[in-house]
Model the fold of this input.
Amino acid sequence: MVEIGHFALILALALSFVQSLVPLYGAHKGDARLMAIGGPVAVTGFALILLSFVVLMIAYAVSDFSLANVWENSHSLKPMLYKITGVWGNHEGSMLLWVLILTFFGALVAAFGGNLPATLRANVLAVQGWIGTAFLLFILITSNPFARLSPAPIEGRDLNPILQDIGLAIHPPLLYLGYVGFSVCFSFAVAALIEGRIDAAWARWVRPWTLAAWVFLTGGIAMGSYWAYYELGWGGFWFWDPVENASFMPWLAGTALLHSAIVMEKRSALKIWTLLLAILTFSLSLLGTFLVRSGVLTSVHAFASDPSRGVFILCILTLFIGGSLALFALRASSLSAGGIFHPISREGALVLNNLFLTTATATVLIGTLYPLLVEGLFGEKISVGEPFFNLTFGPLMIPLLAVVPFGPLLAWKRGDLAAVAQRLMFAFGGALLVALVTGFFIDGASVFAALGAGLAAWLVLGALTDLALKSGIGNVAPRIALRRFIGLPRSVFGTALAHLGLGLTLAGIVGVVSFQSEAILVMKPGQVLQIGGHDLRFDGLRPVRGPNYTEDQGHFSLLGVAGQPIGELFSSKRFYPVRQMPTTEAGIRTMGFSQLYVSLGDETADGSVVVRVWWKPLVTLIWGGALVMMVGGFVSLLDRRLRVGAPTRRKTIEAKPVAVAQ
Amino acid sequence: MTRKQKRLSVIAGALAFLGAATALTFYALGQKASYFYMPADLQAAVLQPGQRIRLGGLVAAGSIVRGQGTEVAFGVTDSDKTIEVRYTGILPDLFREGQGVITEGSFGPDGTFVADSVLAKHDETYMPKEVADSLKEKGVWQEEATQ
Done:
């Protein structure tokens, strides 16, 4: 049974070789039959890897400990959900998921790319084939999930308890859909370089893939952030940790790509730059995979990792990044450059966005890799953390966020800044009001808090103003405005929602950073703590037995004005006997957009316990905002203009949008 | 302005922006990066009063002393030297004697190290990389020993 999965994987590697070479040769010779091989091969390759993935999943579900991978990461008593998610809760399985998603995207290009020119489609599939071949070789040579153990152990070593959480079911698949989704943009870019031809239609084909990958990556990062927030018991939502930065860099570059592709599609400008960004975004995804998998950097999220595998990924990394950039250097000059334009215009604003986002990406990259460089050159060990990023990333974001509302309101070609400023008067007034109210009426507010709150309001109101102006609210009769509002292109809604989500996330960050309150104390049963305007009573510890752990559950009551309990909250210290490992399960109660967060420490001799409690105002907006951004991206995907099957306006071929295919 | 002058001013603006960002980045790297030391390295190190560093090593056996409420003191050792660390708050789940830890903070006037964060890892076999490298150099710890 298990061997079927193993053979399927080897067969997929063989097909991947075919996919890498045959369509490419066909495109070179102009042979339609050779080019046409790419599609079926890509789909079959995906089916084979899916088979192999399902086989591994079944091995986990039935606890087949004759597989080394299952033995190391599973246990027969583990709940079924964690047996399934445990498939990608380890190095081998997560790499298999990586390749599964890669071939999934390849198969999607094959299935929905019918409208692409045959040579472009063949070349794109070939480049996807190269990536697939490299990673399948990596899996089969260094990290085979199907390696057998003989004799088979009776019981497994269990999954790291930190990973036994619903977060593992959602975070890695979403993150990988994002990371690997950018491989399609990369393949399109390399294919364009091979052909030496690029035009506005290219941007129209690439944009939906970028958007889809971006939506998933946004979700993956937000989910990872929330997971770390509730699981680690430290109450932080972002640590500027290398592993987090590894996922954040492709997001920043991908966001830049999303915006520059608009300019390319609409105005045929920034072609070469967009191509470069497509290459860089996926390169950063590869770099992220390398950083996470090799463990070269100390990270709070890193799990046991194997440096020898790192060398292999480093080779893949060098080959793909070096190769594509070399190809870019050779070919870019032969591509036709785009037009130039006036700085005060929609495209000018988008260039400004790109300038800021790529600089921000570079800062994060430098901060992440600098410790490696210093250690390599001088042998000194240093760490670059939050203070560095606050000083560099922060100042870059403030001006960028301040100009966001201007972008969508500026006209293409030549915009009128004064007129746009005038239209944004309401939003500006509202933002100023929010900043002043925050600064003067909330205790303990700093200049930063007032500025941040104002900026968040500016983003939200700016996005709403954009929608209001485009549907003519205030200028035309309400009925007509409503009809216009409904008739607005989906991409306009998408833009407004994404920018609004950004404002919400910022509001959440400002709320937590500036207004959270924290208490660390020893609580006796019956003791009441006042925090953030709430009364929290500790009711005592109770032992609880879970399926594969035991825990001391701390009971807390939230008290009303009269001292009566109005809600309960549980926070526990868990112990997993198989791994001899304790974990903290934070108790969280959501009130409005804010949360009360309780983390348990050690028990003292007299039955009292060390407790750390936070009141986190508006904290849920951080992830809520990301969700709104995702919805914005998704709505944008539904725009008629972006459908893969409608590359030109002249053609009216019916085709499904990419989003539906997900 | 002519077209050429306009283009030049746009390019000059972008370059000035990139220059400022680069300068800021390198300033921040100089100011905000914190150095990592093992206890024995500290004799040779020149530290400003109050300078933030990362101190790593193993939690010394029998050194954990709980004080009032949430205060705790413990020794961080590399088997040559032991530095006393004080910390207020909740220790990580995997904090225990013999475990590799990284603490971040600065030296107080009395010569003890006051940490504001203590990192032990999610994985029970994990050793922070800096700590593992330094201990391997000294021959105190081998990779296999913790497996």
Notes: Chain A touches chain B through 52 residues (CB under 8 Å). Residues 517-616 of chain A form a domain with the Tick-borne Encephalitis virus Glycoprotein; domain 1 fold (CATH 2.60.98). Chain A has a mean pLDDT of 88. Residues 116 and 185 of chain A are 14 Å apart (CA to CA).
